[in-house]
Design goal:
The structure holds 2 protein chains of 2 kinds. By secondary structure, chain A is an all-alpha fold. Helices cover about 75% and strands about 0% of the residues of chain A. Chain A has a domain of about 60 residues. The longest helix of chain A is centred in the C-terminal third of the chain and has 25 residues. Chain B is built from 33 helices and 35 strands. Classes of the chains: A mainly alpha, B alpha/beta. Strand 1 of chain A pairs parallel with strand 14 of chain B. The structure holds iron/sulfur cluster (SF4) (3 copies) and FE2/S2 (inorganic) cluster. Chain A: Keywords: Membrane, Transmembrane, Transmembrane helix.
Chain lengths: ~160, ~1000
């Protein structure tokens, strides 16, 4: 007599196992995105060297120190999602095959030129683009966009 | 024959086919002109004016102007450009460009693309917001008047494609907007949430809520922050080209993040296909495509918005094993080992026929194929069936008898072009919503005649030219009387009958008893009405008959299906476009499950098990021995369990414990099984009786093919990885088979299809390559890949190529004792699927239709003191249900209607009996009577105010652009250019 039953005893995973799985997951992610991450870190260094982070802030004409506001911005729930999206954007860019994207690259160039026009630290962006590979300038633009977005947000919420 | 005409385009003379619009002609010459309001599925709407060109010196809208011989067309002059720009400026006055932070910025926004195409940098009249609020009230989509360019596509789609007739544009307002009914909110209107409007909207004005804040990298920013960001962007950007450039970059990046996967709907036999947009496991939207063969841009609420169940927390993610009074999760290894042991034991102890296998009409063709291969080839029994036994097998039998193929005679497009459509026992607009839209459209716009025969006055009945309500279970009688009358009037198609049909004399003799008088007495229909039907069939060049469970789920279901086919044969309504028989298949793969041999007496392709040559073919193909005797069908399996003959059952994807009739009897059977394996995505009612439950993967998590009601085979692609440890059914069946020594090695469903196609002539030419993307094939498919959208063009699949008239007798429906004084009709609701364990998982759907209810007539309500919300118990000799009432004139007298979408106390099958169609054992679900007691007099109405039934549709044809043109502030851009005046519009 097999009566209808509805109770289910779940297979418990102990804490240690869960931790092992989490770590494994992170490891896989890191390995999968190794190149993107390397490039991103490298780029952050580059940007910093060449005043790019300042550019991000200066886009908004008030010159907030980006790293400064970054820290503040991260507390805001909305900023977290923008940050996440900014990073995802970078990840995506890292995967793009730039040689197949001629027309878009041209458009991007015009974006950057617009950005430099309104930026007070005009030269920094130009410097950044010059002498770098196309792929890098993509990353720069994305980083600029996301950092600028965050800076702007942080400034808004500071007021 | 297309006539060619000579025209001149931008100074060049050319000759082109004459039956096209100027716009089409230009597009074919690769001259791209703006066309913001034009949508190929909707035709010319004429609201946007961006497509203006000069023809013979006059400015015209190119979308609505047909080419004529000698036309001189100018599409490039500065005047033309200026007129187009005026039109585009009017659009931008109504729509703000903030593309980078817009969820619709996915490369397909037509406002964005047209601004780019026209190289517009600045607009002469700035955007200003409209004095209307965003309407967020509907759970599935929202309307933002500020972004609405008043193109009217949504209205056109709602009025004339979906034909729910909710939308219009109020052209009398200072700033016009789209309105629902008479200015109600979306959620309180007659809107059925089919999604046509958001599908065709060229911009973000009408948008699926799943997209909001999800589609872009910089979207999802809350309004207080978003607003200044938009302002800021506009301040720093000097012209549109740079704004658009940034957003193009961002749109390109979205491409790699949002996955678009073609899939096929699993909610009914129409077989809508569409792209699903996903981000990780989040479903952003369902986007039907023009090229989708069955549905084009159409969907219903379930296909467009009903997929939350895929990510439901209630999904099974691990095998479950019964242990005492509960299940425990287990690993696959343990579950499979247990199954192996029990299956071997039963087979060795009691023989292969002690085991029974039930396949599912929700699963893929490949999975059905494997299930019957497991039963026949590995276990050695023909005890295999599928749940189309519950609905459509009688229709298949009726067609086999008369025309030789058990499927729809043509395609949905044939139904669309029929001069006369007769719907018998089908609530088409709720059960096959997208197919119904084609009938509603042809009826509204193209003069198609519609006759509906049903117990209930549902939407199709409301729209019909003639609505007849015969007594329950008497369709065969009026059909035969009409046929007899046609023969007597000399209206039979003599040449068709003599060239293409056998058995005329015997058949005509069998009609003798079906006199009008007899039919009047049995059906309760007046003679005049039946004559009207006969005349309508006689007057129409093409008649298509649609039928469903109102016909099949009766004691004489196969015979009534046969009578329909006989009527069509007598009147020559086979083998020509627009004519034929269309049994509407209920589940997505009812057709396919039977096509692939999940039937006790048939191999795949309907070849008989008892046929030695066929069996030899399969024995050779599979390298096994197959028993010659047909096995048990579902119905017989249940009695077999009760009799102690069937000991073990393996059932996949079917909630037999709710959908079979006489549930108490079925549940008792489950309890008697020695070992019961159920494979499902949820712990269904049936699974609750199982010893082992195997977690399966739904359609979004696997590949395969479905065959829809038109015999159309379509591929589904994998959207997500299977959740947790769940697996696609084909893999599970293979693992079970291999445990038993089968040695199957399929790596992909395409390999299963290849094997099946090599064995079944009906699918001979079916390959995954031929089905790639939106390509489809309609069986029979010859080995060179030629398919058959319309059957019987030259011959019927019988040895002499002729169809057969098949005499049938009326079977009186089941009679009940006097105390069971109410007839309980049953069927579907638009919003829910079957017992509802998928659709109730959608919060939106559940908010619209939270539960089932009993429809009672105003007469019965008055007599018994019932009101909306009164809770009653219905009791039949087999069981009882408890439900709240809804008083409605959809039903009359002592007829009540109980939708099947409940898995609890309201489940209809507690009332039904084991009585079945005498030819197929399909339960006579529609033959129930019950008595009623009131449990609670007062209660809340079971139908919330926000259900579409409470709306107030406003039928009109299209968007009524003439009203726009008549506004004092409207001047045709062409006139402005001529006069050289300002640009306001
Ligand atoms: S019924 Fe509703 S969802 Fe469907 S087109 Fe009309 S307004 Fe849109
Ligand atoms: S909401 Fe309707 S009228 Fe407005 S833009 Fe979209 S489709 Fe056009
Ligand atoms: S349920 Fe039927 S009509 Fe609705 S979308 Fe799915 S296949 Fe199409
Ligand atoms: S496309 Fe012709 S008026 Fe809109």
């Amino acid at each position: 007599m097999a009566k209808a039953i509805t109770t289910i005893h779940r297979l418990e995973i102990n804490e240690e196992e869960q931790r092992r799985r989490d770590l494994e997951e992170i490891e896989t992610l890191l390995v999968e995105h190794k190149d993107t991450l390397k490039e991103f870190l490298h780029m952050l260094g580059e940007i910093n060297k060449k005043g790019g982070l300042e550019m991000g802030a200066s886009l908004f004409s008030e010159g907030d120190r980006v790293l400064d506001v970054l820290v503040k911005a991260i507390d805001k729930p909305e900023a977290a999602s923008i940050l996440k999206n900014g990073l995802l954007m970078l990840g995506t860019l890292g995967k793009l095959n730039v040689s197949e994207m001629g027309p878009l690259v041209n458009k991007l160039n015009s974006v950057i030129s617009v950005a430099t026009k309104i930026s007070r630290v005009e030269s920094s962006a130009v410097q950044l683009v010059k002498g770098n590979t196309m792929s890098k300038s993509w990353l720069v633009a994305a980083a600029g966009a996301s950092l600028a977005g965050m800076a702007y947000m942080a400034r808004k919420s500071d007021r | 024959m297309t006539e060619y005409v000579g025209i001149k385009v931008n100074g060049h003379a050319m000759s082109i086919p004459g039956d096209v619009s100027v716009m089409q002609a230009l597009k074919e010459q690769a001259i791209d002109i703006p066309s913001v309001c034009y949508h190929p599925a909707l035709g010319a709407i004429e609201t946007c004016d961006t497509c203006i060109v000069e023809v013979n010196g006059e400015f015209v809208r190119s979308c609505s102007t047909m080419i004529q011989d000698g036309d001189v067309i100018d599409a490039v002059s500065p005047d033309v450009k200026q007129a187009q720009e005026i039109a585009m400026n009017r659009i931008l006055y109504n729509h703000e460009l903030y593309c980078t932070v817009c969820d619709y910025n996915n490369g397909r926004c037509e406002v964005h693309n047209t601004v780019k195409q026209m190289k517009i940098e600045h607009q002469s009249e700035p955007f200003t917001p409209k004095p209307h609020e965003i309407d967020n009230s509907n759970p599935f989509y929202r309307y933002d008047p500020d972004q609405c360019i008043l193109c009217g596509r949504c209205v056109e789609a709602c009025q004339d494609v979906q034909v729910t007739e909710t939308l219009s544009i109020d052209w009398s307002l200072k700033r016009p907007r789209v309105i629902w009914d008479k200015h109600s909110t979306i959620n309180e209107s007659s809107c059925v949430s089919c999604g046509h409007c958001s599908t065709v909207c060229p911009c973000n004005a009408m948008m699926e809520k799943g997209m909001e804040g999800e589609a872009g990298f910089l979207t999802g920013i809350k309004k207080p922050t978003l607003r200044p960001m938009i302002e800021l962007t506009k301040n720093v950007e000097t012209g549109y080209s740079s704004i658009l450039a940034i957003s193009d970059v961002e749109a390109a990046m979205r491409e790699s993040r949002i996955k678009k996967t073609k899939t096929v709907c699993t909610y009914c036999g129409v077989g809508c296909s569409f792209d699903v947009w996903t981000k990780d496991r989040k479903i952003l939207k369902v986007e039907p495509q023009m090229e989708a063969p069955a549905n084009g841009i159409s969907t219903c609420i379930k296909g467009k918005f009903g997929w939350d169940f895929v990510n439901s927390e209630e999904r099974l993610t691990k095998p479950l094993i019964r242990e005492g009074d509960s299940f425990r999760e287990a690993e696959w290894e343990e579950a499979l080992a247990l199954i192996e042991g029990k299956f071997r034991e039963a087979k060795d102890t009691y023989g292969p026929d002690s085991m029974a296998f039930i396949s599912s009409s929700k699963c893929t063709n490949e999975e059905s194929y494997l299930m019957q291969k497991l039963a026949r080839g590995v276990i050695g029994t023909n005890n295999v069936d599928n749940c189309s036994r519950y609905c459509q097998t009688p229709a298949t039998v009726g067609l086999f008898r008369t025309v030789g193929y058990g499927g729809d005679s043509g395609s949905i497009t044939d139904i669309e072009q029929a001069e006369l459509v007769i719907v018998v026992g089908s609530n088409t607009s709720e059960s096959h919503p997208v197919l119904a839209t084609r009938v509603k459209r042809s009826h509204k716009l193209k003069g198609q005649k519609l006759i509906v025969s049903d117990l209930r006055k549902h939407e199709m009945a409301d729209r019909a030219d003639l609505f007849i309500q015969p007594r329950a279970g008497t369709d065969l009688v009026w059909l035969s009387a009409v046929t007899k009358y046609i023969v007597e009037q000399g209206w039979a198609d003599e040449s068709f009958l003599s060239n293409r049909v056998n058995g005329l004399d015997d058949y005509v003799k069998s009609l003798e008893k079906y006199t009008m008088e007899y039919a009047e007495q049995v059906t309760g229909l007046p003679k005049e009405m039946m004559i009207q039907v006969a005349e309508a069939v006689h007057e129409a060049d093409t008649t298509s008959v649609l039928w469903a469970m109102g016909v099949t789920q009766h004691s004489g279901g196969s015979d009534t299906s046969t009578a329909i086919s006989n009527l069509l044969l007598i009147t020559g309504n086979y083998g020509k476009p627009g004519a034929g028989s269309y049994p509407l298949r209920g589940h997505n793969n009812v057709q396919g499950a039977s096509d692939f041999g999940s039937m006790p007496d048939r191999f795949p392709g309907y070849e008989k098990v008892a046929d030695d040559a066929v069996r030899a073919k399969y024995e050779k193909g599979w390298g096994v021995k197959i028993p010659a005797d047909p096995g048990l069908n579902n119905h017989e399996m249940v009695s077999g369990i009760h009799a102690g003959d069937v000991k073990v059952m393996y059932l996949k994807g079917e909630d037999m414990g709710l959908v079979d009739s006489n549930l108490n009897y079925v549940h008792e059977a489950f309890e008697k099984l020695d070992f019961f394996v159920v494979q499902d995505i949820f712990l269904s009612k049936t699974a609750q009786y199982a010893d082992v439950v195997l977690p399966a993967a739904p359609s979004f998590e696997k590949e395969g093919t479905f065959t829809n009601t038109e015999r159309r085979i379509q591929r589904l692609y994998q959207v997500f990885e299977p959740l947790g440890d769940s697996k696609p059914d084909w893999q599970i069946i293979m693992e079970v088979a291999n445990r038993l020594g089968a040695g199957w090695t399929y790596n992909h469903p395409s390999e299963i299809m290849a094997e099946a196609a090599s064995l079944m002539p009906l699918y001979a030419g079916v390959t995954y390559d031929r089905l790639s993307g939106y390509n489809s094939l309609q069986w029979p498919v010859a080995s060179d890949g030629t398919d058959s959208p319309l059957l019987f063009l030259d011959e019927f699949p019988f040895p002499d190529g002729k169809a057969r008239l098949f005499p049938v007798e009326w079977t009186k429906p089941l009679e009940y004792e006097e105390e069971y004084d109410l007839h309980v009709n049953n069927g579907r609701l638009l919003e829910h699927f079957h017992e509802g364990n998928m659709t109730y998982k959608s919060k939106g759907i559940t908010s619209k239709t939270p539960s089932v209810f009993l429809e009672v007539s105003p007469e019965l309500a008055a007599e018994r003191g019932l009101e909306d919300g009164t809770v009653v118990r219905l009791t039949s000799p087999h069981g009882s249900v408890k439900v709240p009432c809804l008083v409605t004139d959809r039903v009359k007298g002592k007829e009540v209607y109980l939708p099947m979408n409940d898995s609890d106390e309201g489940a209809i099958n507690y009332l039904t009996s084991s009585h079945a169609d005498k030819d197929t054992d399909t339960p006579a679900y529609k033959e129930i009577s019950a008595k009623m007691e009131i449990l609670k007099t007062k209660g809340d109405s079971p139908l919330p105010r926000i259900n579409s039934r409470n709306g107030d549709p406003q039928p009109q044809i299209g968007v009524q652009v003439e009203k726009k043109w008549a506004r004092p502030d409207y001047i045709f851009p062409g006139d402005l250019v001529k006069k050289g005046v300002g640009q306001r519009g």
